[in-house]
Amino acid sequence: MNGSCLFCKIVKGDIPAKIVHQDADVVAFHDIKPQAPTHVLIVPRQHIAKIDDITEFDQLTIGKLVHAGKVVASKLGINHEGYRLVFNNGPAAGQEVYHIHLHVLGGRNFAWPPG
Ligand code: AMP
Ligand code: ZN
User: Fold this and answer.
1) Which residues touch 59 (CB under 8 Å, ≥6 apart)?
2) Binding pocket residue ranges, ligand 1, CB within 6 Å
């Protein structure tokens, strides 16, 4: 828990979010500024600022985020057409919120390479 962190506040319930899935380790909620018809963020309850900070002890947590991505994609019906999972890490990648989060994007086609 980091008192000044936006996503810690969402995990705690101090800031409202449209939650689509949660369990003992992760919380998934709709992005406030969606970049696709379906855009969900999955965060660990544990505060980790960025992917570059993870250690070998965080492997299970990261796996749980990806697994929750699959569960959410299925729940929201974007699994058959396909979806994109994204972690932005650091300024060059456009990371805005420094509590790791997996973007789950679907409902349209995505370009590759990304912008
Ligand atoms: P990133 O650029 O990877 O750090 O992504 C941060 C994401 O958080 C952006 O897509 C924002 O639209 C989203 N976001 C910021 N504030 C909120 C909020 N209060 N509730 C839901 N999503 C948010
Ligand atoms: Zn946090």
Assistant:
1) none
2) 6, 17, 31-33, 41, 88, 94-97
What digits encode the pLDDT tens for the residues 21-74?
A: 999 999 999 999 999 999 999 999 999 999 999 999 999 999 999 999 999 999
Based on the residue annotation, tell me whether 101 is a catalytic residue of this protein.
Answer: yes
Stated pTM of the model:
0.98
Buried b (16+ CB within 10 A) or exposed e, 54-78: eeeeeeebbebbeebbebbbeebeb
How is domain 6-106 classified at the CATH fold level?
HIT family, subunit A (3.30.428)
The domain locations on the chain are 6-106
Ligand nearest to the CA of 35: 1
- Which residue out of 47, 67, 80, 101 is catalytically annotated? 101
